[in-house]
């Protein structure tokens, strides 16, 4: 079954972007292998979402790797002593400085595991939902970073060195606005109520005021829609 | 205490090479932060050795990170269904092909964690004991790989982007033969009986016939010495 399909490893956090990327990889005809991480994040709602998304979008396999980035400290996403910032609207989010929710070297670590799995699968395709437009100031979401990673990866692996399997890191969202991402996902049948993006959920529900909630909410608003993760508290707007 | 020393993250497997590197970093005046991994390897003797080495060489901190590369399969070092190759002498080891003991993307994964810790510590120095001469055919031990990694890392991090902290990956052994590495370590006071390099230990002792045992044994022999990890069974040669 699916034996002649090309395999791809897709980094899947369970959020809006990576879910859209999984739908795109599937639409492009890949047999998808979804990869998530339990990395010391303060909440696990996104892993529950990732499992739901992987099943709904027909991933051939979904692996959750345990790594503990919290052992190093330094980010509000993994360190309980640092507070996640909250704002009233997305316009208040500074993109000039790197936010406290940045996890040191996170995409570098995640891509390294994707590379290991791709090599084992005999796959030359890794998908990641980074975005250079509303990337919230994370350095490891920029195109020049991805290009440098790809170059390094092709020197790192057995297959790359033997020239048999040139690794490509696919970043289908890199030039899209949040609204364009959502539109693409909706065209491909994504139901965004499966997803979870909030940095700081309250009783398992999106807080609506962290940077991640505000950016996705604004994306839906630009399409005249309400973010389904807010819908039960915003039903008047539907 | 040590407040004005520059900090370095040193990848420490507990083997001969990484132990020598830790001694070199210390000799160069760094406050050393030793990083080891429990990565699904078939035996844990090397982690016991790493702990001993970190203490003996005065590391400020030693962290062992749990990651499970075995979930992806594909290497004799993490997969019980694949056999570690054994030979009678180091001359029989092929360097033309990449051996089955290669773990997919291992150094890429390890360096990524080192990068995360370095960023959190405010360190711009990572040490790794790769070697381009008797590197046993691993692609991620070559200088061009290390250079590409360094370039990528400087695009990945907050400090790299802000230009405050340019990451340097130090590879003090890259041009050394095994014998030269051992000589350097001995000059710096390393006792190699602390270390463990064997891929396939029997009852916690070096097998003397895997590639790793044979390469280090030949290094000691070139200096007219007996590898202390073999000494109890080779005492006639001391």
TrEMBL record, chains A, B:
Q: Which reaction does it catalyse?
A: 7-carboxy-7-carbaguanine + NH4(+) + 2 ATP = 7-cyano-7-carbaguanine + 2 AMP + 2 diphosphate + 2 H(+)
Q: What Enzyme Commission number(s) apply to this enzyme? A: 6.3.4.20
| Entry-linked Gene3D superfamilies | HUPs (3.40.50.620)
Recite the UniProt cofactor note for this protein: Binds 1 zinc ion per subunit.
Q: Where does ATP bind?
A: 12-22
Family as reported in the entry's similarity comment? Belongs to the QueC family.
Reported function = Catalyzes the ATP-dependent conversion of 7-carboxy-7-deazaguanine (CDG) to 7-cyano-7-deazaguanine (preQ(0)).
Q: What is this protein called?
A: 7-cyano-7-deazaguanine synthase
Tell me which species this is from.
Allonocardiopsis opalescens
